[in-house]
């Protein structure tokens, strides 16, 4: 499993150098991308130690134009919403191939998960099962994205799993074994981001099922 670190708040950019050797992909979260534009991709690339950068564009139209922008700025991956038109998926995919980049199809706004293989064009490198932030903040304890990993993998999709992943559900995430595990606040808001990231990596690799570092753990 690959660990993707999501940076959704500019205040958390400083965490990246502290944990970069422990993560596989660095994500420019949608709020950061909207606030700072393409410069945020350049900034994360400079801090990523050569790790690939994902731009969480959540593209729903203008697939070619947005793909040109983010891949031209140095991103290696971008997200396109699963509810976007087939033409948008195809357009983003064509540009991705030109750059040797990748597209993650994000289901965050679409409860209709694929029921057959090949629903998306061949460029679909990963299918993101993504629990929306606002639903979780509203008190909905949603684990459907974790529960759906097995069925999506059975259809032949490589899965990226995102949304509310942290100490409370990491054992279930490790059991589901998606190809990419996306973690944001559980690391960036931790008292000790590095120790928390180490624990997450260890758990995903099957080395431990122990308790995470407490908020009072010494740095």
From TrEMBL:
<dbReference type="InterPro" id="IPR011060">
    <property type="entry name" value="RibuloseP-bd_barrel"/>
</dbReference>
<dbReference type="GO" id="GO:0033982">
    <property type="term" value="F:3-dehydro-L-gulonate-6-phosphate decarboxylase activity"/>
</dbReference>
<dbReference type="InterPro" id="IPR013785">
    <property type="entry name" value="Aldolase_TIM"/>
</dbReference>
<protein>
    <submittedName>
        <fullName>3-hexulose-6-phosphate synthase</fullName>
        <ecNumber>4.1.2.43</ecNumber>
    </submittedName>
</protein>
<dbReference type="GO" id="GO:0043801">
    <property type="term" value="F:hexulose-6-phosphate synthase activity"/>
</dbReference>
<dbReference type="GO" id="GO:0006207">
    <property type="term" value="P:'de novo' pyrimidine nucleobase biosynthetic process"/>
</dbReference>
<dbReference type="GO" id="GO:0019854">
    <property type="term" value="P:L-ascorbic acid catabolic process"/>
</dbReference>
<keyword id="KW-0456">Lyase</keyword>
<dbReference type="GO" id="GO:0004590">
    <property type="term" value="F:orotidine-5'-phosphate decarboxylase activity"/>
</dbReference>
<dbReference type="Pfam" id="PF00215">
    <property type="entry name" value="OMPdecase"/>
</dbReference>
<dbReference type="InterPro" id="IPR001754">
    <property type="entry name" value="OMPdeCOase_dom"/>
</dbReference>
<feature type="domain" description="Orotidine 5'-phosphate decarboxylase">
    <location>
        <begin position="2"/>
        <end position="200"/>
    </location>
</feature>
